[in-house]
Amino acid sequence: MRSLTGQADFHALDCAGGTIYGYDSTQGLLRVSKDGTSWDDRARIEALDIAVDPNDPDTVLATTADGVAKSTDAGKTFTAGKQPVMAYISWAEARALYGIDPSGALNRSTDGGSTWKRTAAIPGGQPQALTAIDAERVLAATQDGVYESRDGGRTFTQRLATSGGNH
After folding, report:
1. Which of 65, 66, 112, 127 gets the most CB atoms within 10 Å of its CB?
2. How many CA atoms lie within 13 A of 76 on its CB side?
């Protein structure tokens, strides 16, 4: 965001209901904006990624070393992280929350992160990012490239190889 140029390093951004959430890794701080210009500081948390409930912008999840932490007050406070540990998460629809665990396995939750089910291993090595487009379409970036699933994460097809990839 240009409004915080030089002041924040957003490693994760998400939005729902007209509210933008950004995780500022420099400060270890969740920041919130309605207009992308002025930002309110919220909870301090050590996180890698965040996801906002698409139907309830006050519910925010954050991936921590202890597991997935949850806020129900728009990021002012978070619960302690709950297992399993996820590196990246993306919330496309209420019943389609996806997470990549540190081993590179894709997991899906249909209950807002209370329970998770492993769907498949994502090919291509170390995960780098995750985006759920809808309940069935998921994109995952790994050290070898970008992979797409169109069946809810059961199978993946490589869509883009990185220059250092093996494929």
Report:
1. 127
2. 4
Taking the chain (167 residues) in runs of 10, the rounded mean pLDDT of each run is 50 80 86 87 93 94 96 96 96 94 94 95 92 96 95 95 64
Query: What total of structural domains would you count in the chain?
Result: 1
Helices (H) and strands (E) in the chain, counts: 0, 15
Is 32 part of any domain? no
The answer to whether position 76 is within a domain reads no
CATH number (domain holding residue 127): 2.40.10.500
Query: Would you give the DSSP letter of residue 136?
Result: S
pTM for the model stands at: 0.87
Question: Could you tell me the CA-to-CA distances from 147 to 42, 52, 98, 134 in Å, in that order?
Answer: 33, 23, 14, 15
At 35 the pLDDT is: 86
